[in-house]
């Protein structure tokens, strides 16, 4: 499969380029030049597969030039062997709603599903090409833990994780900072998530620096993550299979997870609406409901993994909306950078064919956790509660699946506020509480962070 950048579709890249680079040199995001949907009979052949077999069928066409199908099958099985449920994910009923639990991996959030696979992709690549790489990633809390768990102790690579200091939950922090492997570096940046993301982008865009350290990235803009996440939309559809197209409600920050649902739809899966559920950092809700894509200041909430005002993956959607015109996309992105972009009516109508949106504030989120616990005796994490609340506020009654993105024990404060108790870590993770944490605090200063990286490798 050929890939191009959303800001220059005249130059072709292979999956290997796309995977290792993460972000294109022109600042754009990689997308396939052409996405071929599965034919009806091909979809029929997928419907009874196990999660792992389904993953191989969906992912292989995107990466065929990188490894053989047999190698992919064995990496998938290795990646998901340590998940706490048999088929990687689990679907539960909440009245008429289905909830797709994606948090049964080692760090208790959906991000493990893509990241465990990516970790093994790196290892596969580095066994063939001995050049040492340095992976730098910004996290709002969950990506970092998932990345470190997937990459710790692997040969020929270091992983640097930038998290916003004091703005993530203690459980989130511990899951990243308790590791003793010498290739793991945790940096607490005195700033918010967008600052962390900007630092990483600036390091990538500094060609001299990024070449010198052979920099690579696993943020949610990495295409490999998107394809790994598209798998569970298919899996849920085939498990639920009630003859109707399904809508998916997705607690959304960087627009990666929900974009994977959009990819599933482009691949031919009968998806009705993709519901963008946000907290009060609601740029995407304002954009999709009324075209207002201007950034406001990021506010801290009880759903920290969505405290984002720059949804990086949105660029991929805009590229489609602009009829795959990379010149126009580039223009739009520079308007977004100047914070002057409004989506015009024509484009918004196109977006609304596939997406709707809703927002929950912190109070509504806590109330939703309580209501679900009262009604069903199920404790959901606050991000998942935002996803469920969005469906309720939109008044959707059937054929909806909510993506449950994290285990409730990761966000004890919100759970405590809602139901005056907290959820325990799964037994297999109890050790986390006794380990010593290791991280360095740095100012929100590009030169200081670069210096730290240089001195560490
Ligand atoms: C990362 C994350 C999200 C947001 O996902 P995006 O792909 O950034 O939109 C939502 N919930 C949880 C728990 C997360 O960790």
**Category by helix and strand content:** alpha/beta
The residue fraction in helices comes out at 40-55%
Order of strands side by side in the largest beta sheet? 4-5-13-10-11-12
How would the global form be characterised? Answer: globular
- Report the mean per-residue pLDDT as an integer: 95
User: According to CATH, what is the topology of the domain at 90-108 and 223-419?
Assistant: Rossmann fold
The CATH first-level class of the domain at 90-108 and 223-419 comes to: Alpha Beta
Biggest beta sheet attributes = 6 strands, mixed
- The CATH architecture classification of the domain at 90-108 and 223-419 is 3-Layer(aba) Sandwich
Count of DSSP H/I helices: 19
Work out the number of β strands: 14
End-to-end separation? 34 Å
Task: Walk me through this protein's architecture.
It is built from 19 helices and 14 strands. The chain is an alpha/beta fold. The protein has a 6-stranded mixed β-sheet, sandwiched between helices. Strands 9-6-7-8-14 form a 5-stranded parallel β-sheet, sandwiched between helices. Strands 2-1-3 form a 3-stranded antiparallel β-sheet. The longest helix has 18 residues, at 111-128. The chain has a domain at 90-108 and 223-419: Rossmann fold, CATH 3.40.50. Strand 10 (246-251), helix 11 and strand 11 (271-278) form a beta-alpha-beta unit. The two termini are 34 Å apart. The protein has helices spanning 15-21, 40-46, 51-63, 69-79, 111-128, 142-151, 170-177, 193-205, 207-212, 223-240, 256-266, 283-290, 314-321, 326-337, 345-354, 362-376, 382-394, 412-419, 446-456, and strands at residues 3-5, 8-13, 30-32, 90-94, 97-101, 133-138, 157-164, 184-190, 215-216, 246-251, 271-278, 355-359, 400-404, 440-443. The chain is globular, with a radius of gyration of 20 Å. The mean pLDDT is 95. The chain binds pyridoxal-5'-phosphate (PLP).
């Amino acid at each position: 499969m050929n890939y191009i950048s959303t800001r220059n579709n005249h130059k072709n890249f292979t999956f290997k380029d796309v995977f290792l680079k993460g972000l294109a040199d022109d600042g754009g995001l990689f997308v396939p030049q052409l996405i071929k949907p599965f034919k009806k009979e091909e979809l029929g052949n997928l419907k009874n597969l196990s999660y792992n077999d389904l993953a191989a069928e969906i992912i292989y066409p995107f990466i065929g030039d990188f490894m053989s199908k047999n190698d992919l099958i064995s990496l998938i099985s290795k990646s998901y062997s340590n998940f706490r449920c048999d088929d990687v994910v689990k679907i539960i009923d909440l009245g008429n709603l289905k909830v797709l639990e994606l948090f049964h991996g080692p760090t208790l959030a959906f991000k493990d599903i893509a990241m465990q696979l990516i970790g093994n992709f790196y290892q596969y690549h580095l066994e063939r090409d001995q050049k040492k790489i340095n992976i730098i990633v910004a996290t709002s809390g969950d990506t970092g833990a998932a990345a470190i768990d997937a990459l710790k102790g692997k040969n020929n690579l270091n992983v640097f994780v930038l998290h916003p200091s004091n703005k993530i939950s203690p459980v989130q922090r511990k899951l990243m900072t308790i590791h003793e492997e010498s290739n793991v570096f945790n940096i607490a940046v005195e700033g918010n998530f967008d600052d962390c993301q900007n630092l990483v982008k600036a390091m990538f865009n500094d060609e001299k620096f990024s070449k010198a350290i052979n920099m690579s990235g696993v943020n949610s803009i990495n295409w490999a993550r998107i394809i790994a996440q598209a798998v569970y939309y298919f899996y849920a559809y085939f498990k639920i299979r009630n003859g109707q197209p399904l809508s998916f409600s997705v607690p959304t920050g960087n627009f990666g997870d929900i974009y994977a649902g959009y990819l599933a739809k482009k691949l031919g899966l009968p998806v009705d609406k993709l519901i963008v559920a946000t907290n009060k950092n609601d740029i995407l809700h304002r954009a999709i409901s009324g075209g207002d894509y201007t950034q406001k200041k990021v506010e801290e909430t009880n759903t920290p993994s969505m405290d984002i005002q720059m949804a990086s993956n949105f660029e991929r959607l805009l590229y489609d909306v602009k009829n795959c015109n990379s010149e126009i996309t580039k223009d739009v992105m520079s308007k977004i950078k100047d914070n002057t972009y409004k989506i015009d009516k024509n484009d918004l109508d196109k977006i609304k064919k596939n997406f709707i949106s809703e927002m929950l504030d912190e109070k509504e989120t806590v109330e939703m956790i309580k209501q679900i616990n009262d009604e069903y005796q199920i404790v959901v994490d606050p991000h998942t509660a935002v996803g469920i609340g969005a469906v309720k506020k939109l008044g959707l009654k059937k054929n909806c699946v909510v993506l449950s993105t994290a285990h409730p024990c990761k966000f004890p404060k919100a759970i405590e506020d809602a139901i005056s108790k907290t959820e325990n870590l799964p037994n297999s993770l109890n050790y986390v509480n006794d380990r010593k944490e290791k991280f360095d605090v740095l100012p929100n200063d590009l030169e200081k962070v670069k210096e730290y990286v240089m001195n560490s490798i």
